[in-house]
Specification:
Elements (H helix, E strand, L loop, with lengths): L3 E6 L3 H12 L1 H8 L3 E7 L3 H8 L4 E3 L2 H5 L6 E4 L6 H11 L3 E4 L2 H18 L3 E2 L10 H8 L5 E7 L2 H13 L3 H10 L8 H4 L2 H15 L9 E2 L7 H9 L2 E11 L4 E11 L11 E8 L3 E8 L3 H18 L30 E11 L4 H11 L4 E9 L3 E8 L2 E2 H12 L9 E5 L4
Parallel strand pairs: 1-2, 1-4, 2-3, 4-5, 5-6, 8-10, 10-17
Antiparallel strand pairs: 7-9, 7-11, 9-10, 11-12, 13-15, 13-16, 13-17, 14-15
The chain binds NADP nicotinamide-adenine-dinucleotide phosphate and L-homoserine (HSE).
């Protein structure tokens, strides 16, 4: 069979890795795909730099449209990032009847509904394994491996940069900025690293996972997002003392009234598998009603792990491109006409346990007044401890039992009005996962 021709839009960390894997494992990949996968054209900004990697035998251009409109090319692989030019090029590729492979979670989280609808209408595939959790085949697992299940929830560490930062800060005592710079050097971080630090990248990925798990449209704008930039070193230390580690988790759960969709720093018990996922590693726990909990672990970012997922998609497309479109796996796991409109819940409806830290004046009656507000709001205290702060102040740390976030917020509003509470209360969620 003749080789299938591919056009690469971008030859940076992931694009460069994809080129290397397709070159290094060409024969093994062809044995799996049934034909060779050949890069015929590349679009980049810096042509000289690209030529040093790919040589002089293929087209290298600064014009992505030249790749997308090249009649030889059957699969367009978008690895440029961003949501303007990348979106235009992907929509044009679809209009030209070409299949698309992308690692661009930011683009799919915002424009996925439009892109998948266009691809469905045109009968082409848009695959995105590399967009979530780098080298872990989590999309294939949910979309194909777990199809027997009504998925109940999933929770995961799905941003390598922040997990690397939290791990190094905790275990090495290194400062935030130094660890972030190292994550950037290693190619983990997004072009705009605030996407990583503020939880936006994890929310992009979680949005896609929720759609795949529950058969709902992509709804990034409804995700609740908190990052790690406001996390204090003392909370990491207090969590440790209480038997927990703080991880940036993406959590989505099917409840009676809707779907939770939230990314935030979370205390997880040190005995929990997720608490022991360190460095840039990612891990996702998925719970289905038939299979029970399953866990997926691996490198969530970087050149070769991400390229592993891109190439897996290329092999899938090469195998299926001649199949009748109706016989292919649906883009978002569910048949497009079977997607439903279960609402995404506001975060005030989320039920969780909470870690609360407040700095107060150290005098009789303070604890009793705070405890009585919590009790009036029906919030039960699981444990607490107090640590002196100077001569006259103390930090009080509570762990609550499960409560509605709306009730916690109402209690905090009242606690903030107390004259002896000197700082804004730090509120973190606690999840007792497996
Ligand atoms: P990157 O290293 O910055 O590479 C971007 C590539 O796109 C470069 O080759 C760049 O050309 C090219 N490019 C950018 N703008 C262009 C334009 N206007 N015209 C032509 N070429 C252009 O980015 P990356 O880390 O590989 O990330 C690529 C995508 O993969 C992003 O969507 C990212 O979110 C996603 N992703 C990344 C990782 C990771 O670990 N890095 C993991 C999963 C998913 P030059 O080389 O000439 O500058
Ligand atoms: N910036 C992302 C991360 C890259 O740190 O996980 C992988 O999607």
């Amino acid at each position: 069979m003749s080789p299938i021709k591919v056009g690469l839009l971008g030859l940076g960390v992931v694009g460069g890795g994809t080129w290397k894997v397709l070159t290094r494992n060409a024969e093994e990949i062809a044995r799996r795909a049934g034909r060779h996968i050949e890069v015929a054209a590349v679009a980049v900004r810096d042509i000289e730099k690209a030529r040093r990697l790919v040589g002089d035998d293929i087209l290298v251009t600064q014009d992505g449209l030249e790749v997308v409109r090249n009649p030889e090319i059957e699969i367009v692989v978008e690895l440029m990032g961003g949501d303007t030019l990348a979106r235009e090029l992907i929509m044009e590729a679809i209009a030209q009847g070409k299949h698309v492979v992308t690692a661009n979670k930011a683009l799919l989280a915002k424009y996925g509904n439009e892109i998948f609808a266009a691809a469905h209408a045109k009968g082409v595939m848009v695959t995105f394994e590399a967009a979530v959790a780098g080298g872990i085949p989590i999309i294939k697992a949910i979309r194909e491996g777990l199809t027997a299940n009504r998925i109940q929830w999933l929770a995961g560490i799905i941003n390598g940069t922040t997990n690397f930062i939290l791990s190094e800060m905790r275990s090495q005592g290194l400062p935030f900025e130094q660890v972030l710079a190292e994550a950037q050097r290693l190619g983990y971080a997004e072009a705009d690293p605030t996407f990583d630090i503020e939880g936006v990248d994890a929310a992009h990925k979680l949005t896609l996972l929720a759609s795949l798990a529950f058969g709902v449209p992509v709804q990034f704008d409804k995700a609740h997002i908190e990052g790690i930039s406001m996390l204090a070193a003392e909370d990491i230390a207090h969590a440790e003392r209480l038997g927990y580690r703080i991880k940036l988790l993406g959590i989505t759960r099917r409840c009676d009234t809707g779907i939770e969709l939230r990314v935030h720093p979370t205390l997880v018990p040190v005995t929990c598998l997720l608490a022991n996922v360190e460095g840039a590693m990612n891990a996702i726990l998925v719970s289905g009603d038939v299979v029970g909990p399953t866990m997926y672990y691996g490198q969530g970012a970087g050149e070769l792990p991400t390229a592993s997922a891109v190439v897996a998609d290329l092999v899938d497309v090469a195998r299926l491109e001649s199949a009748d479109p109706g016989h292919r796996v649906p883009h978002l796991a569910f048949q497009p006409e079977a997607m439903d409109d279960t609402p995404i819940l506001p975060v005030s409806d989320v039920v969780s346990s909470y870690y609360l830290r407040m700095r107060v004046q150290d005098r009789p009656g303070v604890l009793a007044d705070i405890a009585s507000i919590l009790s009036e709001m029906n919030i039960s205290i699981g444990s607490m401890f107090q640590e002196p702060h100077g001569e006259t102040e103390a930090d009080i740390i509570f762990l609550s039992h499960q409560a509605r976030e709306g009730a916690i917020n109402a209690a905090l509003d009242r606690i903030h009005e107390l004259p002896f509470v000197h700082t804004k209360v730090t509120r973190l969620r606690v999840e007792n996962l497996l």
